[in-house]
Design a protein that fits this description.
The protein is of the alpha+beta class. It is 12% helix and 27% strand. The chain contains three helices and 15 strands.
Length: 233
C-alpha cells in the first residue's frame, strides 16, 4: 500500500481546506475506515502547535496502490468568490487615495531685478514675495531660466579674491542658508542670508541674491533641488 501526501497540516481549518475536504469526501469515502471521514482523519487537533513548521504532513492511509486521482479532479474545484463560502471574507481596502502621500504643491521662484524682490509661486499662483539685494554694477545678477542646484545649511564662505575661508557663524557673509542656482563652473550665484541686513533692497552684492536671514530660512524650507528659478530684468 502507498501513502498519499496531499496537504500540509497546520492545525487550522482554513476555508480552502474545508472546501477540498467537502468536495472529496464522497469520492474517497469507501477507502476510509468505518466511521471516519476526511476531517477526522486529517485534523487531529483544532489548536495550532507551537511550531507549525515542525508538524508532519497529514496522511490518508489504506488507499489502493493505483488510486485514480484523475477521477477526483472535477470534484476538487475550489469555491469561487461568488459562493457564500468565500463572499465578504475580507473587508474593503477603500480607495487608492487613502494610501497615497499628499501631493506637494509645485514651487517656482521669479526674481524681478527691477523691483528687487523674489516671488514665490505655488501651482502657478503667486503666494509670497521677499525683498532682496541684487548684484551691483560690474557684478550684475545673470538673467535667464535656472533651477536650484545646491542647498546648504550654515554654509562656509570663500573670499572671491584671496581664497580665505570664513566658517559658519554670525559674521559669515552668507548668513545661515545657501540656495545656489547658477554657476559657470568656478563661481556660484544663489540666495543667501547676510549679517548686513541693511543692504537688502539695494544693488550691493557680487551677483548673489541677499535676503534677510529670517526670509532665507523660510524660503529654504519651501524649495528643493530642481525648483525653477527665473530672473527677469
Amino acid at each position: 500500500m502507498k501513502t498519499l501526501r496531499f496537504m500540509r497540516a497546520t492545525g487550522v481549518l482554513g476555508m480552502t481546506t474545508l472546501g477540498v475536504c467537502l468536495c472529496a469526501q464522497a469520492a474517497i469515502a469507501k477507502y476510509l475506515p468505518a466511521g471516519k471521514n476526511l476531517l477526522s482523519t486529517s485534523l487531529p487537533s483544532t489548536a495550532p502547535p507551537a511550531d507549525a513548521d515542525a508538524m508532519p504532513q497529514a496522511e490518508v492511509t489504506n488507499l489502493p496502490t493505483q488510486l485514480p486521482l484523475r477521477r477526483l479532479a472535477p470534484l476538487l474545484t475550489l469555491p469561487d468568490a461568488t459562493t457564500p463560502l468565500m463572499r465578504n471574507e475580507l473587508p474593503s481596502l477603500g480607495t487608492p487615495e487613502a494610501y497615497l502621500p499628499p501631493v506637494a504643491p509645485q514651487i517656482a521662484l521669479m526674481i524681478d531685478l527691477s523691483d528687487r524682490r523674489v516671488y514665490v509661486y505655488e501651482d502657478g499662483q503667486r503666494r509670497q514675495s521677499y525683498p532682496i539685494a541684487i548684484g551691483r554694477e560690474g557684478w550684475e545678477t545673470p538673467v535667464g531660466r535656472f533651477q536650484v542646484m545646491q542647498m546648504i545649511r550654515n554654509p562656509a564662505w570663500q573670499h572671491p579674491f584671496n581664497g580665505s575661508i570664513v566658517p559658519p557663524g554670525p559674521n559669515n557673509p552668507l548668513g545661515t542658508r545657501w540656495i545656489g542656482f547658477w554657476t559657470d563652473g568656478r563661481n556660484y550665484i544663489g540666495f543667501h542670508g547676510t549679517p548686513n541686513e541693511e543692504s537688502v533692497g539695494r544693488a550691493a552684492s557680487h551677483g548673489c541674491i541677499r535676503m534677510l536671514n529670517r526670509d532665507v530660512v523660510e524660503l529654504f524650507e519651501r524649495v528643493r533641488i530642481g525648483t525653477p528659478v527665473t530672473v527677469v530684468p
